[in-house]
Amino acid sequence: MNSPIAGNQMSRFFQQVAEYTRNAISAGKYLIQGLAVTFDHMGRRPITVQYPYEKLIPSERYRGRIHYEFDKCIACEVCVRVCPINLPVVDWVMNKETKKKELRNYSIDFGVCIFCGNCVEYCPTNCLSMTEEYELASFDRHSLNFDNVALGRLPTSVTTDKSVQPLREFSYLPKTIMDPHEMDPTNSRAGKLPEEVMDWMKQESESAPKDLVESINNQDKKTEK
Amino acid sequence: MTVLGTLVSTGLDLELSFNNILQGFGFSPEVAHILWLPLPMLLVLSAALIGVLVTVWLERKISAAAQQRIGPEYAGALGILQPMADGLKLLVKEDIIPAKADSLLFTLGPVLVLVPVILSWLIVPFGQNLLISNIGIGIFLWIALSSIQPIGLLMSGYASNNKYSLLGGLRAAAQSISYEIPLALAVLAVVMMSNSLSTVDIVNQQNGLGFLSWNIWRQPVGFVIFWICALAECERLPFDLPEAEEELVAGYQTEYAGMKFALFYLGSYINLVLSALLVSVLYLGGWGFPIPIEWVARIFGQNIDAPLVQIFTGSLGIVMTILKTYLLVFLAILLRWTTPRVRIDQLLDLGWKFLLPIGLVNLLFTAGLKLAFPIAFGG
Amino acid sequence: MTISSSTEQICFILLGLTVIVGALGVVLINNIVYSAFLLGGVFMGVAGLYLLLNASFVAAAQVLVYVGAVNVLILFAIMLVNKREELKPIKALQIRKILSAGVCGGLLILLFRVDLTTKWSTPGPAAIGEKATERIGEHLFSDYLLPFELASVLLLMAMIGAIVLARRDVLTSDVVTGDVVNQNLIEKSNEPILIDQSNKQ
Ligand code: SF4
Ligand code: SF4
């Protein structure tokens, strides 16, 4: 074994050791960085909603349990046809004398419904609507099969329930505020409220030239066709 | 308070007075001794159990805080009673033994896991005389006992007759065998400095200059090695492969329910507390106050041997030990939510290719330093 | 007889029974896993006997080495190759059993003879208790240095052998036949885990 090769090998070995040590130290540094992040999180406010005591206010377009008005329904069965699984059960008989359908029962099984909202969209008489109710848990899946009486009940609103602390959802919060707990309830949400939008639209239509408004209206009609 | 006082001044006094009382009732000294024997054991058992309850609660609360949740809240103030509720639930749950399982080994497994861990509490000192037995082999007993655990894990993994259980058991055994060696090497370096295996001597050797003389300054590498290995032995998160829930359902505990599962659960948490205790004993000066208590006593003009001061220092020692321990438990929980789980090959690589050579070098280095600077590194 | 000595005797009898029954179980039980677990029990019993003899360091070493390492490795090996296969019936098994029983019995008789003919000095040398650890260390590095070193060389050889067996990429060809060893079996990723990936780009 001659010395230059041995020296070379030695220096390579020491290089490797140095590299190894550097890697180990950098791994330790990353670990400490991660620990700092976790530690930092411990000082923050909990972002969770304490569910049975606090509830989020569902947004306006929330697709919850379906509400149904028996008196408006004409038993046309459109809802059944548009439903992806033909779910609503429309129980009617033909009255021979008046030659009219007579509705006897109507039911939707929420154990099967996917809350797609097709039935609500297409009902010609608007007797179906989606509510904000989502607490449908039950001990027996058959009790999820709502008949027309159950479907006709209105849900209790989170905001009027005295036992519940209503919390605003993210979309209802003012700009830059992330946590509903730390917000003043009088603050209004980011963007315009529906009535403000309404006012604004009225102003616009007054100030805008007539033909523009008409053209917009025509467009609306076209899409309706 | 008087009980504590006698306990502090000399460990035997409590036993003596207990024996005297019993002899006053007409028992022979030997019977009195036999009646005395289970008491320290019961004390240790309850200390371990309470330690576990506190740790479980802390784990839940700290985990919740790290994830911006609240954690248990309604069982007692701040959810303090939640671990008890957990335990109660496990107690009354049905004890299931799978039909195809080997019922004898299935029952024996959890026991074999728990008993060595509890036995290791024998050597944990909370003060100069506040430990069950100051045996000469001290820390070595712990290393020996902790090597029994994998047998229990293998046993329960095999007896469950379930592939996940078996894999979990095998992983647990492989893991604890590989991490025992660097662990022992790290301990050996400390032992070399204190010239004794006894935990009491190890602590005494560290408490000359307060926190400046703690072993962590003289053995920083050993501290890191020991902590990593202790986490691996406890199967805490970066190394929780034996029960990796995404891969193995729950590893060797998969088939267990009720009290047998509770034994595993207890075992893992007692082990965590024990490891934290031993880290504080080996590297953080055990029951020692950061400033030597003699100096404080001198500043206040108190005699260190006065009974009241003794009581004070004794309780301070217990508080310090527990404080250090739970600081380390906190670190373990923080690590749990920071680090991802390592793969099995990474785990073995880390153990054999990283910790083992570094442990050996550390040992060599310590020996050299001990020869070069006998004052600082234990002559 | 004091309570302590009678406790000692009870412990001795119990431990002795554990060791004997366990050892018999290791040999006689057909289920190999049970045998392995019983072996662990026997080792523990022996450790208990050491404890009774005031040799706590030896007892702990016994537990660490035999229970914690040897027995776990045996179990590990058994469980890794846990194949339930029907073994071929061995011819003349009965005769073999009788023969081996005869050998074992002969050994036992020899042991008894040694036991009975030796003049045991009772009581033996006083137990040194806690000092035993240091004394063992002194012996290991003075008069028992050669056996100690020989044992470590033996272990080193075993270790190197294991490494050669495990890392077959050391051998490019089979030792016996000279064929090229199938390199596909070799684990491909030997990358250390602590590599810093950032400076690779
Ligand atoms: S919401 Fe969708 S799935 Fe449910 S009943 Fe209506 S159409 Fe059917
Ligand atoms: S579509 Fe509307 S009106 Fe027609 S049956 Fe369904 S609910 Fe009744």
Task: Give a verbal description of the structure.
The complex is a heterotrimer of chains A (225), B (379) and C (201). Chain A is an alpha+beta fold and 225 residues long. Chain A has helices at 3-42, 78-82, 118-122, 148-152, 194-207, 210-224, and strands spanning 54-56, 66-68, 89-95, 100-109, 128-130, 145-146, 165-167. Chain A contains six helices and seven strands. The mean pLDDT of chain A is 83. Helices cover 69% and strands 0% of the residues of chain B. The longest helix of chain B has 32 residues, at 163-194. The two termini of chain B are 39 Å apart. Chain C has 201 residues and is mostly helical. Chain C is globular and about 60 Å long. Residues 184-194 of chain C have low confidence and may be disordered. Classes of the chains: A alpha+beta (225), B mainly alpha (379), C mainly alpha (201). The B-C interface holds B 30-31, 33-34, 105, 135-137, 140-141, 143-148, 150-151, 154-155, 157-158, 166, 169-170, 173-174, 177, 180, 197, 342, 345-346, 349-350, 353-354 and C 2-4, 33, 37, 40, 44, 56-57, 60-61, 63-64, 67-69, 71-73, 75-76, 79-80, 82, 129-133, 189, 192-194. One iron/sulfur cluster is lined by residues 82-85, 87-88, 108, 113-119 of chain A.
